[in-house]
């Protein structure tokens, strides 16, 4: 992968202060697997106020327009992408995002000065996604400065979302992957780890806003395409990290967390040895225990159903919690 190493991308004040992203771009060719293609487009829809799509033929333009009527579609070959962007925006702004889901996207994002937004490694068990059903007349195309109203079927659902939460080095990602593989559930990986792996430092307060925004878009997208969906961390965890690292939390993120809800949260205890990782910063057990306590306090304030997962049999505890919560899950 031609990642943009050695760079740190500056987020717009609008994203940090209000959680709003104005423009993002998708460039074909797009996946043949229809549910995964839906996943890409609806992630973009939930992430940005304006979704720009570049296609190479009239036939592809008609197909995309019919299935994704919220998109602003531009006809142009990949080699003329820079000209397409400039003609539509007047100039390229660094706070516009280029959604990366294939190798060639890295080069294109850098060529026009956009911020690449990698999502290619985020989803486990993509084959389990369901096609998004909608009425073609339920959304109409809009101007470049106005986002269409989301119809009812696109609104985020909460009855099927399971989040895995807790301090670093507690085995959350290992647990999430094991549950997804054995119970055959779609899993959205932790975005903070993926995003920061492409930066030249450990990240700052502005990265909190982007990570939370991306997580929110993933939750809205994947929960709408799944009977049950697993999320390795989420906006709640990002709020706790923001408070611990920076002593403050974006106001819009606090409001988002208050409004969101989950069917179940698996709260993983810090009762296994800490292992070094360049992205980790809590080697002291007391620090991780404080993080755990902040998570538990937040869950109590939000009145979200949760179960503490601890000890050597944490996988069995978590699996049983899911089987008990969802009658459709079988071993």
TrEMBL record:
PANTHER family: NADR_TTD14 AAA DOMAIN-CONTAINING PROTEIN, TRIFUNCTIONAL NAD BIOSYNTHESIS/REGULATOR PROTEIN NADR. It comes from Spartinivicinus marinus. It comes from the Bacteria. Gene3D superfamilies: P-loop containing nucleotide triphosphate hydrolases. Pfam families: AAA_28. CDD domains: NK (cd02019). Residues 161-311 form the NadR/Ttd14 AAA domain. This is AAA family ATPase. InterPro entries: NAD_biosynth-regulator, NadR/Ttd14_AAA_dom, P-loop_NTPase.
């Amino acid at each position: 992968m031609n990642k943009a190493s050695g760079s740190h991308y500056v987020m717009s004040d609008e994203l940090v202060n209000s959680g709003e992203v104005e423009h993002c771009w998708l460039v074909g060719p797009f996946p043949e697997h229809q549910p995964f293609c839906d996943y890409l487009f609806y992630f973009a829809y939930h992430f940005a106020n304006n979704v720009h799509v570049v296609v190479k033929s009239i036939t592809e333009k008609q197909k995309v327009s019919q299935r994704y009527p919220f998109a602003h579609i531009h006809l142009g070959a990949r080699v003329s992408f820079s000209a397409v962007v400039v003609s539509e925006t007047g100039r390229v702004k660094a706070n516009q995002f280029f959604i990366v889901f294939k190798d060639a996207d890295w080069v294109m994002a850098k060529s026009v000065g956009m911020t690449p937004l990698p999502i290619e490694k985020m989803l486990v068990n993509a084959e389990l996604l369901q096609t998004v059903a909608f009425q073609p007349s339920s959304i109409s195309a809009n101007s470049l400065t106005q986002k269409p109203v989301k119809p009812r079927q696109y609104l985020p659902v909460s009855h099927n979302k399971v989040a895995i939460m807790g301090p670093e080095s507690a085995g959350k990602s290992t647990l999430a992957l094991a549950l997804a593989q054995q119970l055959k559930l779609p899993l959205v990986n932790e975005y903070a780890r993926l995003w920061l792996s492409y930066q030249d430092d450990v990240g700052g307060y502005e990265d909190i806003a982007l990570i939370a925004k991306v997580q929110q878009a993933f939750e809205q997208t994947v929960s709408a395409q799944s009977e049950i969906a697993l999320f390795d961390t989420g906006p709640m965890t990002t709020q706790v990290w923001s408070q611990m690292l920076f002593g403050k939390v974006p106001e819009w993120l606090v409001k988002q967390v208050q409004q969101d809800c989950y069917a179940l949260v698996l709260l993983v205890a810090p009762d296994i040895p800490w292992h070094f990782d360049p992205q980790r910063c809590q080697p002291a057990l007391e620090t991780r225990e404080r993080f755990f306590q902040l998570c538990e306090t937040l869950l109590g304030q939000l009145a979200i159903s949760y179960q503490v997962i601890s000890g050597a049999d944490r996988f069995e505890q978590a699996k049983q919690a899911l089987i008990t919560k969802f009658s459709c899950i079988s071993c």
